[in-house]
Structure formats: C-alpha cells, structure tokens
Automatic annotation (TrEMBL):
Annotated binding of Mg(2+), by residue: 172, 192
Lineage: Bacteria, Bacillati, Bacillota, Clostridia, Eubacteriales
Known cofactor(s): Mg(2+)
Originating gene: obgE
Family membership noted in the UniProt record: Belongs to the TRAFAC class OBG-HflX-like GTPase superfamily. OBG GTPase family.
Source organism of the structure: Acetobacterium fimetarium
Protein name: GTPase Obg
Length: 427
C-alpha cells in the first residue's frame, strides 16, 4: 500500500527536575546543598532513509514521544539526559507544521537529519541557589516541558522527469516502454492510482528517474478527482514531459487539454508552472490525417514549446524524445525549490522566567493567573520553607504578576489561584 501523506503528534521529553538535597556525612553534619541538575529531555529527530519507501507506518502509529530527562539527586549527581527519538522516513519527505502550514524541513538526501521537536531543559538543583546570605536553599528548579507539535508528513517522489497529462493519454504505456517499470495499464480513467517511478537507462548516458504523475484533470488544484493527491509529486522534477493524445481518441481536443493541464499547474504553484516543459504528441499510430497532426504541432511550437511526435505502442519517436530529455537535464542542472522552508533555528531554550507571558482572569472574586512558566515555578518551590517562598514571590514580582493584580483592583485577603495553588493576597 502506497501512503504519501500522514499526520502525527510529537512530544519531546520533559526536562528532569533539579534535586533538593544536603550533604550529610559522619563528620560533616551540616554540609551544604548538593542537589544535582535535572537531565535534559530527549528531542525528536527525523532522518531520511533509503530503506523506507512509504509513510504507511505512520497511519497506524500517530503519537511519538521522546524520553524524559531524569531528576537530579544528592551528591551533586545530575539526572540522565533523555534519549533522542530518531524517526526514519523515506527520502523525499517534507515535514510541515500543522498549525501554521509552513514547511519545517525537506529531507531530500539519504541520512539527512532535522530536529523537529526540542526536549525540555533540566532544572537546576539547589546547589546552584546557594549564596553568602542563603547558604541552605530548600528549593530547586523544575524541568521545562518538552516541545509538543502536530506535523504533517508528505512524501514527494524524487524524480528528474515528470510525465503529466490527462488520464488515458498513454503515460503508463510510455513509462513501461522506456523503463523496466510495470505499471497497471488499461483503457479507463484513473487506471494509475499511485505515482509510478522508473529508471531510464538509455544508451551510454547517465540514467535518470521518471515519474508517471496520475490523476490530473480539470479542477485538480481544487481537489477534483485524484489530482490534489498527486500534484505534489511533480514539485521536485527538473523537467516536465507533457503527454497529449494527438489522435483525440477520447473525444477531447489535445490543444485544449494542454492548456487546461498547464492552468492546473499554475494554480497549484507558479514556480512549478515555470519548470522546463516539452510536449510529446502520443498515439500518432492512430492518426491518418497527417496535415491535422502538423497543424497541432505547429500551434504548440508557436506557443514556445519543443514538440516530439511519438507512439508509445510502436516506439516511433522515442529515441528522439529521450535524447533531448537527457540533453535538457544536463543543461537545467539544479532547480529552485518551489516551497519555502522555515529558517533553521537553534534550540528553543530561553532564559528562565524571562520569556513567558501570563494572563489574569477574575472569576467569583478569585484572581486566576495562567502562564506557561507557572508549572515550572511551582515545581521549584518548597512551600514549607521561607527561603523558597521568598524565591517564589520574587519571581512573581519580577514577572509583573503583582503589578497586574493591583491594576485589576486586588485587595488584601483576596484569593489568587496559580495552577493548583491558592493563596490569600497581602501587600
């Protein structure tokens, strides 16, 4: 089963909490703090692998989680770092962020890696909070949660040449003739329901990969028929061979078909529509009126296209078409990507408590404070220790929480709720 699109949920590992511990030995009864730092959570990394051909495994396993970092402990022992989760995908996989729709990475080479979800940083142990005036801190820092995101995987076939055209114009037949591929061939629309790949080895030239792109009909860019499932596969091609049924055996006008297919390409992606394109007039073995064929060829050449007259059944004109294809591939070289990638960013770790925001809502005389930094802050605090409570209050003050509460009219003894913690406010 060929699966070329999947949606999965990623959860990077949480950072371990910092340890809260004091050195206690036989001759050192009042040793200082020695709680170690928590380990960083594991990240989620995607890797392109030639051994994978489809995204089918992601249809059955949608949630992927990296290992959490371990908590710090006494004797300044740091917690173990969580292992990264490496997810292997086929070469040619593009990873998009579901929320924004932007492309995160394009894994186009075997072994290429990209970190898509960052593990959380481990919290600092209480040994880091000792000062000349606070020699026995009874609190440690909580670990940061790992990044969570939903991504969409899309497999785009790595073909040098894409065969485009309406259904039943002979694309599968041509592919079977010029390669060793064995696509399903029959005289009805949408015979090809998955893209077929083949390697063309012609004479002594370097081989190239050609893909039969199925399902293009009028309205494909809007999802009509099967086209929207397959248009993505022509995005990587350097050259497009536009196959037309010159005989009109389906009762359609070849020139009109040509214009409709190019309209679909332009609507799908303007950069794609600008790919070098040559035209192959197929099924000429069914044409008796040579003048009509010459007229069609002349009209296409007037539009600026190179035109080749072929018959995939008899083999007429195939050598000329392949010879020009190889020459053009060499001339074109590398092509510009038709989609924009997100800028490569370093780890999302940021200075503690400085980057987060919060909101305050008053419900039934209770001031509810919410913010991404609160859970980590609460995990850092020992509410039975005055030093720890003082640390807690300083962070809230530095964040501007108290200032905002006062702007909202809070009074002494009013209740403030932070996560699952409630306390009475006193100025």
């Amino acid at each position: 089963m060929f699966v070329d699109k999947a949606e999965i949920i990623l959860k990077a590992g949480n950072g371990g909490h910092g340890g809260m511990s004091f050195r206690r030995e036989k001759y050192v009864p009042n040793g200082g703090p020695d709680g170690g730092n928590g380990g960083h959570g594991g990240s989620i990394i995607f890797m392109a692998d030639n051994g994978h051909r489809t995204l089918i495994e992601f249809k059955y396993k949608r949630k992927h989680k990296a290992e959490n970092g371990e908590n710090g402990s006494g004797c300044r022992s740091a917690g173990k770092t969580g292992e990264d989760l490496i997810i292997k995908v086929p070469v040619g996989t593009i990873i998009k962020d579901k929320e924004t729709g932007r492309v995160i990475c394009d894994l186009s080479e075997d072994g290429q890696k990209y970190r898509v979800a960052d593990g959380g940083r481990g919290g600092r142990g209480n040994m880091n909070f000792a000062t000349a005036t606070r020699q026995a801190p009874r609190f440690a820092q909580g670990g940061v949660k790992g990044q969570e995101r939903t991504v969409i995987l899309e497999l785009k076939l790595l073909a040098d040449v894409g065969l485009i055209g309406f259904p039943n114009v002979g694309k599968s037949t041509l592919l079977s003739v010029v390669t060793k591929a064995k696509p399903k061939i029959a005289n009805y629309h949408f015979t090809t329901i998955v893209p077929n790949l083949g390697v063309v080895e012609w004479r002594n030239f370097d081989p190239f990969v050609i893909a039969d792109i199925p399902g293009l009909i009028e309205g494909a860019h809007e999802g009509t028929g099967l086209g929207d499932q397959f248009l993505r596969h022509v995005e990587r091609t350097k050259l497009l061979i536009h196959l037309l049924d010159a005989s009109g055996s389906e009762g359609r006008d070849p020139l009109n078909d040509f214009k409709k297919i190019n309209y679909e390409l332009e609507k799908y992606n303007e950069k794609l529509a600008k790919r070098v394109q040559i035209v192959a007039l197929n099924k000429v073995d069914l044409i008796s009126d040579q003048e009509e064929l010459n007229t069609l060829k002349g009209e296409l050449e007037t539009l600026g296209y190179e035109v080749f007259v072929i018959s995939a059944v008899t083999g007429a004109g195939i050598n000329e078409l392949l010879s020009r294809t190889i020459q053009l591939l060499d001339e074109i070289g590398e092509v510009e990507p038709i989609f924009d990638l997100e800028p490569v960013e370093e780890t999302v770790y940021t200075p503690e408590f400085k980057e987060k925001q919060f909101t305050i809502e008053k419900i039934d005389n209770v001031f509810i404070v919410e913010g991404a930094f609160l859970e980590r802050l609460i995990n850092s605090v020992n509410f039975e220790d005055l030093d720890s409570i003082g640390f807690f209050q300083r962070v809230l003050k530095d964040k501007g929480v108290f200032e905002e509460l006062e702007k909202m009219g809070i009074k002494d003894e009013d209740v403030v709720r932070l996560d699952e913690i409630e306390f009475e406010y006193f100025k």
